[in-house]
Amino acid sequence: MDKFPSTIQFTGLNTPIRAEASVRDLVVEGEIPPEIQGAFFRAVPDPAHLPMFEDDIALNADGMIARFLFGDGHVDYDIRYVETARYLAEKKARKALFGKYRNPFTDDPSVEGVDRTVSNTTPIWHAGRLFMTKEDGRAYEVNPHTLETIGSWDYHGALKSQTMTAHARIDPETGEMFFFGYEADGLCSKEISYCIADKDGNLVSEQWFEAPYVSAMHDFVITEKYAIFPLFPTTADLDRIKAGGPHWAHQQDLESWVAVMPRYGKVEDIRWFKGRKGVSCFHLVNAFDDGDKIHMELCLSDTNAFPFMREAGGIHCDQSEIGGGLIRWTLDMSRNDDSIAEIPLGPPGDMPRLRDKDQGRPYESAWYLSMNPEGGPPLPGGPVGVAFNALLRIEPATGRLDMMPLGFGMGLNEPVHIPARDPDHEGWLMCVVDRQVDDNLFESELWIIDAGNVSQGAVAKVLLPIPMKAQVHGWWVPADQLAQARAGK
């Protein structure tokens, strides 16, 4: 292959940039709230080399860690590749050696046994350490000050699972981090690990249990009493993978499941609840206890949101036809059945954001991305092939919904939330906004938005002089925590 494929996975906002860069003192329009001091880290998939296969996907690209550093009204920007074992092997060879997405049977024989993860999904900050994660492997630790890669992270040998989720949950009161890994002991394994790291970053618990099938289990939630593991019917099959086929295929006729266990209990205490057939969810807003009931909010769709996963399962529909919405599932732990009650809360969307202090607790408001019905055709690119063009603020208890709509030719990346000093203020949201200026040419800005008044739009904009590639997820680290980094220790 002498050029990148002309597919949606490598054009639009997914156009490879492949450049490490540093820019100091970015230009700011408006005034940055003085309490915004710290770093916004972004996970950006960007292939360092031409792919081995024409039908490669954006999620298979090498991970880059990007950082906007805020201090005293100044903003600096840096982006570096995460130097995973995979990245370093291909850097040395000056070409791609790893084949199809999560399929080691399509790799060059020279990299057999080399860690395949690209660490391109979520930056996670816990106990003074910055990790770059992707759910097909263990995390890589990164120095938050230099963005240099320190190495694969296994809790000093304590972690037995071969995988770690890109969606850990951190309890705001205890400081503990809860996480899991699926395919925990190898390709197409039904084993799931459930782990707890204490506030100091020590792994204090790791338990394993078996799932009904191998599911693309991207996210989970905690409450004050429970850990909750949703499984949706996008499944893996070892024979299909060995034949060079896709890792994931969505099965529309297969049930979804939810596993619930006491947060500090034993996996033997898990209860299974049965959900609707064929539905799919990659991200959950939150969950909380209500007496004997558990409420959990999901960005649910009637089928899988990723075209390549749908099509592998024989499902062919337009992206606008996947349906669904923001949905509340309620599980009644006092009942002796496996049913799930369901009510709608808001329109379809994804990439939800919750205040850190509300994790696992009842909450008043949250935010997620959706589509502006008057915004025109969406920008091409991003993980599912199209970009969102509206930011929603929702109050689940009242049903109130506020929108920040974007105009024609604009798109939003997932926001992060930054708390305000004033306890009566909802804080700030920060996200990259892209605008199409010509055919396959885009400009980007970093917007700062009043979280309680999203319809007002940006209160400040940071102008970006270099191209931005669509991110997956991000994380905000306050300056006081950043100063206590324990990188490499």
UniProtKB/TrEMBL annotation:
Family statement: Belongs to the carotenoid oxygenase family.
Cofactor: Fe(2+)
InterPro entries per record: Carotenoid_Oase (IPR004294)
Protein name in UniProt: Dioxygenase
Amino acids binding Fe cation: H167, H218, H283, H473
Lineage: superkingdom: Bacteria
A Pfam family that the UniProt record links to this protein: RPE65
